[in-house]
Design a protein that fits this description.
2% strand; single chain; mainly alpha; 193 residues; two-stranded antiparallel ribbon; 2 strands; 9 helices
Length: 193
């Protein structure tokens, strides 16, 4: 009946439905905080509060937070869908024939880590602000394309390795954006001085 049985919580974290419900409540509270924080960043509140942030780091933080909230929303959808599946005796982790809901949930979750890292690496290399912004922009596009491709793969009911032509095109485009960001980062000329 409960998500703790299909999330493998019964053996490691949760010993009762009460603990599982508390975990779900905690996840909801953290997600609400992330939504609040994301809205503050998107509306530019840190800058108005005097927090200095370069354009590339601002883009990385905003896009990373938006993708993290997107991932949380997909996590709630996966939980809701899994509960519905359990109620009718179907595997809770599957959507359609073989789509794995955690795939879409997990695809965007790390953008908040790697996009600021790109901005930091560009600054560390001494690249001009325009180059750093271009690198992060390509990283954002790659992250969005991976998020869309993974969700499409799930909604088509296909396993992660049974890639549909459209999702393959999206994954390849994401790889191209990531490669372009890496090339710019590696070959960019440090600004003088």
């Amino acid at each position: 009946r409960h998500t703790r049985y299909w999330r493998d919580w019964s053996s490691d974290v949760c010993s009762s439905d009460l603990v599982a419900d508390a975990m779900n409540l905690l996840i909801a509270a953290v997600t609400a905080f992330l939504v609040w924080l994301t809205l503050r960043f998107v509306r530019g509140v840190p800058e108005r509060d005097g927090v200095p942030m370069s354009a590339d780091m601002r883009l990385a933080a905003r896009a990373g937070l938006i993708l993290l909230v997107w991932s949380c929303a997909l996590g709630f959808w996966a939980t809701w869908h899994g509960e519905r599946q359990l109620a009718v005796g179907r595997p809770p982790e599957l959507y359609g024939a073989a789509g794995v809901t955690k795939f879409a949930h997990g695809a965007a979750i790390h953008a908040l880590q790697w996009l600021p890292a790109l901005a930091w690496l560009g600054r560390r290399r001494g690249l001009a602000p325009e180059s750093r912004l271009r690198i992060v922009g390509r990283g954002v596009l790659a992250s969005v394309l991976v998020a869309l491709a993974s969700l499409l793969q799930v909604l088509l009911g296909r396993s992660r390795l049974d890639v549909a032509p459209l999702t393959l095109a999206l994954f390849l485009a994401a790889a191209g954006c990531g490669f372009a960001a890496a090339i710019t980062l590696a070959s960019g000329r440090p600004r003088p001085g």
